[in-house]
Amino acid sequence: MPSFKSGMQAQGWPQDVGIIALEIYFPSQYVEQHELEEFDAVSQGKYTIGLGQTRMGFCSDREDINSLCLTVLSRLMERTGIGYENIGRLEVGTETIIDKSKSVKTVLMQLFEDSGNTDVEGIDTTNACYGGTAALINAVNWVESSSWDGRYAVVVAGDIAVYAKGAARPTGGAGAVALLIGPHAPLVLERGLRSSHMCHAYDFYKPDLSSEYPTVDGKLSIQCYLSALDSCYATYCRKSDVTKSASASSMSLEVLDAMLFHSPYCKLVQKSLARLALNDFLRASPDSVSTKYPGLEAFREKRLEDTYFDRDVEKAFMANSMPTFEAKTKPSLLVATQVGNMYTPSLYGSLAGLISSHTVSSLAGKKIGLFSYGSGLAATMFSIKVSTDTSPGMPLAKLVTSMANLRDRLESRVKVNPQAFAQIMQLREDTHHKAPYVPVGDVSILFPGTWYLTGVDDKHRRQYERLPLLPSSNAHPGTSQILNKEAPVPSLAIGAATI
Ligand code: HMG
Fold it and tell me: In the list 42, 196, 295, 374, which could disulfide-bond 129, CB 3.0-4.6 Å?
């Protein structure tokens, strides 16, 4: 491993801190949204066109938040070949709470046991879908701080997003991401360009600790999301303009090569991009309005806070921003439309989708805007500058290669019919927090290398095992190097045997 510490001592400040590698995990089974429309007896097109969703990934009773995070972290470590002893901080972001005290991070520490490394800072962070971004900020801040000991940080974000029967159910999903954080990263978090908006709202929350389901005020949640977006963008633009020289163009969507969003459903993302175009329009100088926004002059007097559900404004700016959406946002929606809302990993699933749509040279040097939102509410906008080093074997090339098979991985999932999906949801509902409990879900459909729950004992202690990594597998072709290593398959006994 490179001696970052010595580099820091020489230069006084770690350079280009950001995301070095990214791993994404989603469930191996999905339900088709158009079949769900029929099953739920809603009008055809409501989920697919109205919400913009194609498929929804979901977990049986074999997977929980611990298993999702064990899987994604194992895969990140195997893919990158970085030993667990080289991790000095591990942060977990999740809102899938199965224990009010014991963190997911401590469960993940079992993967560190063989390395003997227990000197690992960080713990779980929770606020709806925002926990992953809070974890990322913590990890980056650690590397940039006087506490940094020269090792890597890892961020794991995972969730199982399930809703009770009804309007919100098609906006579920599940998955996890793991991000390797350090200096000299191919995806650098731009310093000084971070804006947040945090306030109190009851738009989506989970007050019933015995249920996996949230309490949701759908309409309020959309208003909260869009108002947080407006606020974050205004502050981001202000900070961005302050750092620019007088001759440089001021902040607008034109400055960004890509704009990614937390994606509860894809239609809201498209509306959000249109919302940023509306913000640009209202900030634009009077003389540029007629050339850049022909036909929209009548909206010049609108106030943002009056337009959350203004159909005329929405329609006009959706149309105006369509080319920008197609070029700068749509490529990032692959995972969001195919898997659904993954909650904390959602934004980073969009990053994975964006990377998978690029070659190394087409991604190099790009500036990416990101908007993270978690109900309740907490939101942050920040930006990433992509490295320009396109050399083979360098981190950017490795990152792009690692995401090249994302579409194939999504296609390799197993389709489940809505009836069976509803039964599995019912099983999760009936057995949530049951102890003792032996899960019944089919293990054979899980991807190779997936950690799964084998049992919960009468003291609520959970045991997991891992499916073997097949020597040659199409499920995760990008990991063939690792799969060929025939890594040993550990079996974790979480509970009496180890604690
Ligand atoms: P709903 O009541 O079914 O919505 O709930 P609707 O009747 O308004 O229909 C949705 C859209 O489909 C509408 O389009 C309809 O016109 C259209 P819009 O008016 O919005 O442009 N539609 C059709 N289109 C084509 N063909 C048809 C058709 N029928 C209707 N036949 C809602 C929708 C999103 C509210 C619900 O699913 C829900 O409550 N979801 C959960 C909450 C959520 O996702 N909120 C998003 C923002 S909050 C957030 O992102 C945080 C979150 O991730 C949680 C966290 O932070 O942890 C959720």
Answer: 374
